[in-house]
Amino acid sequence: MLTHVWGLMAHPQREWKQMHDEHETVFHLYAHHVLILSAVPVVCSFIGTTQFGWGLGAERTIQLNLLDAFYAGIVFYLVILAAVFFMGNVIHWMAQRFVDPPNRRRCVKFAGYVATPMLLSGVVALYPIVWLCLLAGVIGLCWSGYLLYVGIPNFLDISDEQGFIVSSATLAIGVLVLEMLLAATVLLWGYGERIILGLLQ
Question: Domain Yip1, which positions (predicted)?
Protein backbone atom coordinates (compact mmCIF):
# COMPACT_ATOMS: atom_id res chain seq x y z
CA MET A 1 0.00 0.00 0.00
CA LEU A 2 2.71 2.49 0.96
CA THR A 3 4.57 1.71 -2.26
CA HIS A 4 1.54 2.71 -4.33
CA VAL A 5 1.04 5.90 -2.30
CA TRP A 6 4.63 6.97 -2.91
CA GLY A 7 4.47 5.94 -6.56
CA LEU A 8 1.25 7.90 -7.20
CA MET A 9 2.76 11.01 -5.64
CA ALA A 10 6.25 10.73 -7.17
CA HIS A 11 5.87 9.00 -10.57
CA PRO A 12 2.16 8.43 -11.28
CA GLN A 13 2.38 7.38 -14.92
CA ARG A 14 4.78 4.55 -14.16
CA GLU A 15 2.77 3.55 -11.08
CA TRP A 16 -0.51 3.35 -13.01
CA LYS A 17 1.10 1.05 -15.57
CA GLN A 18 2.47 -1.15 -12.81
CA MET A 19 -0.91 -1.36 -11.04
CA HIS A 20 -2.67 -2.12 -14.32
CA ASP A 21 -1.69 -5.80 -14.21
CA GLU A 22 -2.44 -6.34 -10.53
CA HIS A 23 -5.52 -8.47 -9.85
CA GLU A 24 -6.72 -6.66 -6.76
CA THR A 25 -10.25 -6.96 -5.38
CA VAL A 26 -12.28 -4.01 -4.09
CA PHE A 27 -12.16 -5.59 -0.63
CA HIS A 28 -8.36 -5.67 -0.75
CA LEU A 29 -8.26 -2.07 -1.97
CA TYR A 30 -10.42 -0.88 0.90
CA ALA A 31 -8.61 -3.01 3.48
CA HIS A 32 -5.09 -1.97 2.45
CA HIS A 33 -5.57 1.51 1.03
CA VAL A 34 -8.89 3.34 1.39
CA LEU A 35 -9.66 2.39 5.01
CA ILE A 36 -6.18 3.42 6.11
CA LEU A 37 -5.85 6.65 4.14
CA SER A 38 -9.42 7.73 4.96
CA ALA A 39 -8.42 7.64 8.61
CA VAL A 40 -5.78 10.36 8.01
CA PRO A 41 -8.18 13.35 7.77
CA VAL A 42 -10.46 11.84 10.43
CA VAL A 43 -7.75 11.27 13.04
CA CYS A 44 -6.07 14.58 12.29
CA SER A 45 -9.39 16.43 12.53
CA PHE A 46 -10.15 14.67 15.81
CA ILE A 47 -6.83 15.76 17.31
CA GLY A 48 -7.03 19.26 15.88
CA THR A 49 -10.60 20.02 16.93
CA THR A 50 -10.22 18.63 20.45
CA GLN A 51 -6.77 20.06 21.21
CA PHE A 52 -6.71 23.35 19.29
CA GLY A 53 -10.16 24.02 17.84
CA TRP A 54 -11.12 25.39 14.44
CA GLY A 55 -9.40 28.70 13.79
CA LEU A 56 -11.98 31.07 12.32
CA GLY A 57 -9.93 34.27 12.41
CA ALA A 58 -10.00 37.16 14.87
CA GLU A 59 -8.76 34.77 17.59
CA ARG A 60 -12.07 32.92 17.50
CA THR A 61 -12.03 29.13 17.70
CA ILE A 62 -14.58 26.33 17.93
CA GLN A 63 -13.39 23.39 20.02
CA LEU A 64 -15.19 20.07 20.44
CA ASN A 65 -15.08 17.78 23.44
CA LEU A 66 -13.81 14.23 22.97
CA LEU A 67 -17.22 12.56 22.74
CA ASP A 68 -18.64 14.98 20.17
CA ALA A 69 -15.45 14.76 18.10
CA PHE A 70 -15.61 10.95 18.25
CA TYR A 71 -19.17 10.87 16.87
CA ALA A 72 -18.30 13.46 14.24
CA GLY A 73 -15.26 11.37 13.27
CA ILE A 74 -17.33 8.23 12.74
CA VAL A 75 -19.78 10.07 10.47
CA PHE A 76 -16.95 11.80 8.58
CA TYR A 77 -15.15 8.47 8.06
CA LEU A 78 -18.25 6.77 6.66
CA VAL A 79 -18.94 9.73 4.37
CA ILE A 80 -15.41 9.53 2.92
CA LEU A 81 -15.70 5.77 2.29
CA ALA A 82 -19.07 6.26 0.60
CA ALA A 83 -17.72 9.15 -1.52
CA VAL A 84 -14.89 6.98 -2.89
CA PHE A 85 -17.32 4.20 -3.80
CA PHE A 86 -19.72 6.73 -5.35
CA MET A 87 -16.98 8.23 -7.54
CA GLY A 88 -15.99 4.74 -8.69
CA ASN A 89 -19.56 4.18 -9.84
CA VAL A 90 -19.61 7.59 -11.56
CA ILE A 91 -16.48 6.64 -13.53
CA HIS A 92 -18.03 3.27 -14.42
CA TRP A 93 -21.22 4.97 -15.61
CA MET A 94 -19.30 7.53 -17.68
CA ALA A 95 -17.21 4.81 -19.34
CA GLN A 96 -20.21 2.80 -20.54
CA ARG A 97 -20.47 4.86 -23.73
CA PHE A 98 -17.23 3.35 -25.07
CA VAL A 99 -16.71 0.10 -26.95
CA ASP A 100 -14.77 -1.79 -24.27
CA PRO A 101 -15.59 -0.16 -20.91
CA PRO A 102 -13.83 -1.22 -17.69
CA ASN A 103 -15.84 -3.16 -15.14
CA ARG A 104 -17.19 -1.64 -11.92
CA ARG A 105 -14.51 -3.27 -9.75
CA ARG A 106 -11.73 -1.65 -11.75
CA CYS A 107 -13.43 1.75 -11.66
CA VAL A 108 -13.88 1.65 -7.87
CA LYS A 109 -10.22 0.68 -7.48
CA PHE A 110 -9.28 3.56 -9.74
CA ALA A 111 -11.34 6.03 -7.68
CA GLY A 112 -9.72 4.77 -4.47
CA TYR A 113 -6.24 5.46 -5.79
CA VAL A 114 -7.19 8.80 -7.38
CA ALA A 115 -8.43 10.01 -3.98
CA THR A 116 -4.99 9.48 -2.40
CA PRO A 117 -3.72 13.11 -2.58
CA MET A 118 -6.99 14.52 -1.21
CA LEU A 119 -6.96 12.10 1.71
CA LEU A 120 -3.31 12.88 2.47
CA SER A 121 -4.06 16.62 2.43
CA GLY A 122 -6.15 16.00 5.57
CA VAL A 123 -2.92 16.06 7.59
CA VAL A 124 -3.26 19.85 7.86
CA ALA A 125 -6.35 19.34 10.05
CA LEU A 126 -3.95 18.64 12.93
CA TYR A 127 -3.94 22.41 13.34
CA PRO A 128 -7.32 23.27 11.77
CA ILE A 129 -7.28 26.75 10.30
CA VAL A 130 -10.03 27.19 7.73
CA TRP A 131 -7.96 28.89 5.00
CA LEU A 132 -5.11 26.39 5.42
CA CYS A 133 -7.46 23.40 5.13
CA LEU A 134 -9.06 24.91 2.04
CA LEU A 135 -5.65 25.51 0.46
CA ALA A 136 -4.54 21.94 1.20
CA GLY A 137 -7.83 20.62 -0.19
CA VAL A 138 -7.37 22.55 -3.45
CA ILE A 139 -3.79 21.29 -3.83
CA GLY A 140 -4.94 17.72 -3.15
CA LEU A 141 -7.76 18.13 -5.68
CA CYS A 142 -5.35 19.40 -8.35
CA TRP A 143 -3.04 16.42 -7.87
CA SER A 144 -6.00 14.03 -7.87
CA GLY A 145 -7.13 15.65 -11.13
CA TYR A 146 -3.69 15.01 -12.59
CA LEU A 147 -3.83 11.37 -11.44
CA LEU A 148 -7.24 11.11 -13.08
CA TYR A 149 -6.03 12.36 -16.47
CA VAL A 150 -2.88 10.21 -16.38
CA GLY A 151 -4.58 7.11 -15.01
CA ILE A 152 -7.55 6.77 -17.35
CA PRO A 153 -5.48 5.65 -20.38
CA ASN A 154 -2.87 3.80 -18.32
CA PHE A 155 -5.14 1.99 -15.85
CA LEU A 156 -8.61 1.87 -17.41
CA ASP A 157 -7.43 1.28 -21.01
CA ILE A 158 -9.47 4.16 -22.38
CA SER A 159 -7.84 6.16 -25.17
CA ASP A 160 -6.54 9.68 -24.52
CA GLU A 161 -9.31 11.25 -26.63
CA GLN A 162 -12.09 9.32 -24.93
CA GLY A 163 -10.35 9.60 -21.57
CA PHE A 164 -10.37 13.38 -21.75
CA ILE A 165 -14.18 13.36 -21.86
CA VAL A 166 -14.48 10.87 -18.98
CA SER A 167 -11.88 12.57 -16.82
CA SER A 168 -13.28 16.07 -17.38
CA ALA A 169 -16.81 15.02 -16.45
CA THR A 170 -15.55 12.95 -13.52
CA LEU A 171 -13.43 15.84 -12.26
CA ALA A 172 -16.43 18.18 -12.41
CA ILE A 173 -18.52 15.76 -10.35
CA GLY A 174 -15.53 15.18 -8.05
CA VAL A 175 -15.31 18.92 -7.36
CA LEU A 176 -18.97 18.91 -6.30
CA VAL A 177 -18.35 15.90 -4.04
CA LEU A 178 -15.30 17.63 -2.54
CA GLU A 179 -17.34 20.77 -1.87
CA MET A 180 -19.93 18.65 -0.08
CA LEU A 181 -17.17 16.97 1.93
CA LEU A 182 -15.70 20.36 2.88
CA ALA A 183 -19.15 21.59 3.92
CA ALA A 184 -19.65 18.41 5.94
CA THR A 185 -16.24 18.94 7.53
CA VAL A 186 -17.11 22.44 8.67
CA LEU A 187 -20.52 21.34 9.94
CA LEU A 188 -19.31 18.20 11.70
CA TRP A 189 -16.06 19.47 13.13
CA GLY A 190 -17.04 23.11 13.55
CA TYR A 191 -20.58 22.80 14.82
CA GLY A 192 -20.68 19.13 15.72
CA GLU A 193 -21.84 19.70 19.27
CA ARG A 194 -24.90 21.71 18.22
CA ILE A 195 -25.79 19.26 15.44
CA ILE A 196 -25.43 16.19 17.65
CA LEU A 197 -27.43 17.76 20.47
CA GLY A 198 -30.11 18.77 17.98
CA LEU A 199 -30.37 15.22 16.66
CA LEU A 200 -30.59 13.74 20.15
CA GLN A 201 -33.35 16.08 21.31
Answer: 6-178
